[in-house]
Amino acid sequence: MKKPLWMIASAAVLILLGTYLIANTAGRDKAEQAEGTDVRKLVEDISTGREKPQSASISATTLTVTETGNKETTYTLPENEFFLSIAPYVQQTHPCEIHSLTGCQGEMVNEEFMVTIHDSEGNTLFMKDEVLKSGANGFMDLWVPRDRTYLIRIVQDGKVAEKQLSTYPDDQTCITTMQLM
């Protein structure tokens, strides 16, 4: 009686171990595919709705995409670039730190803004006469150099929002605190 029970338990352990190894190998294959991915283009495609995953969020260092069936893939962001998503607002905003490419919604949809960005060394990334347009989600997506501090100024119809932001590993990617006044 003990021998058949032992054989059944051993078979169950082997089945579970095999299932685990197969799942782990599939996950590694997915991670290997992620290495060859143009992350900037993937972020743009998700932001604009050309790609429609179940969810996607972007931190200071990674993009995490969840597909149907809860298949999650994590992509490493470019080493020298930091992603900022800024939603200027007049009346309504939401608290946020890590931008959800599929969930965050800003107040000012498909609107044009004049944006100026200077780093702490006096370099200009965007000039005051450059116009950026928010997307259907009300956010303007920017890739800026990493590990710096910036002064960002947004102007629309005589209203101004100004904020100092930084792009270090623990900094926010979702900026929802720039009220145009």
Question: Would you mind describing this structure in some detail?
Answer:
The chain has 181 residues and is α+β, with helices and mostly antiparallel strands. The chain has helices at 2-35, 39-47, and strands spanning 55-58, 62-67, 71-76, 81-86, 99-100, 112-119, 124-126, 131-133, 140-145, 149-156, 159-166, 174-175. The strands form three sheets. Strands 6, 7, 8, 10 and 11 form a five-stranded antiparallel sheet that branches. Strands 3-2-1-5 form a four-stranded antiparallel sheet. A hairpin with a 2-residue loop joins strand 10 (149-156) and strand 11 (159-166). The protein is globular and about 45 Å long.
What is the topological layout?
Elements: H1 2-35, H2 39-47, E1 55-58, E2 62-67, E3 71-76, E4 81-86, E5 99-100, E6 112-119, E7 124-126, E8 131-133, E9 140-145, E10 149-156, E11 159-166, E12 174-175
Parallel strand pairs: 4-12
Antiparallel strand pairs: 1-2, 1-5, 2-3, 4-9, 6-7, 6-8, 6-10, 10-11
